[in-house]
Q: What sequence folds into this?
C-alpha cells in the first residue's frame, strides 16, 4: 500500500493513489519549513486505526521512531506551517502525536503515540 510517493525532496511531487479509503479528496500540504536532511530515508506515517496517510518524514538513522521534528516533515495532512498542539487523524480523529519542545536541542517536534501509527519505509 503505497499511499504517497515522494520524488527528490527539493522537488516534491506527490502521488496519492489507490483506494477510496486512502484519503480521496484529502489535501496534502507540503511543509514550507522542511529542510533536506542528508543520509535520511523517508517514512510514510499512517493512522494505525484507519490507515489514513498522515505524513512523510525524513528519518535519520535506525533508532526508534518516537518523534518527528517539524523541519523534517516533508508533507502531510496538516498544514505544518501552522502550529498544532497535536496531530490528529483527519478521518477517525485518533491522536497520532503531541507537540513538544525537545530538551536537548530545543527544537519543535511531535512525540508520536506508539500504538496510534504505522510507518513504512519508502
Ligand atoms: Zn485514522
A:
Amino acid at each position: 500500500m503505497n499511499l504517497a510517493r515522494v520524488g527528490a525532496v527539493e522537488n516534491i511531487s506527490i502521488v496519492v493513489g489507490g483506494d477510496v479509503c486512502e484519503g480521496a479528496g484529502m489535501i496534502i500540504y507540503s511543509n514550507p519549513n522542511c529542510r533536506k536532511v542528508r543520509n535520511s530515508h523517508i517514512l510514510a506515517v499512517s493512522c494505525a486505526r484507519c490507515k489514513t496517510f498522515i505524513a512523510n518524514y525524513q528519518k535519520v538513522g535506525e533508532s526508534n521512531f518516537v518523534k518527528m521534528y517539524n523541519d523534517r516533515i516533508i508533507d502531510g495532512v496538516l498544514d505544518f506551517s501552522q502550529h498544532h498542539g497535536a496531530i490528529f487523524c483527519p478521518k477517525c480523529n485518533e491522536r497520532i502525536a503531541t507537540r513538544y519542545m525537545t530538551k536537548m536541542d530545543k527544537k519543535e517536534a511531535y512525540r508520536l503515540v506508539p500504538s496510534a501509527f504505522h510507518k513504512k519505509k519508502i
User: Anything to note?
Assistant: The pocket of zinc ion is lined by residues 47, 49-50, 52, 89, 91-92, 94 (CB under 6 Å). The first strand starts at residue 4 and ends at 6. The domain at 4-121 is CATH 2.170.150 (Metal Binding Protein, Guanine Nucleotide Exchange Factor; Chain A). Residues 1-23 have pLDDT under 50 and may be disordered.
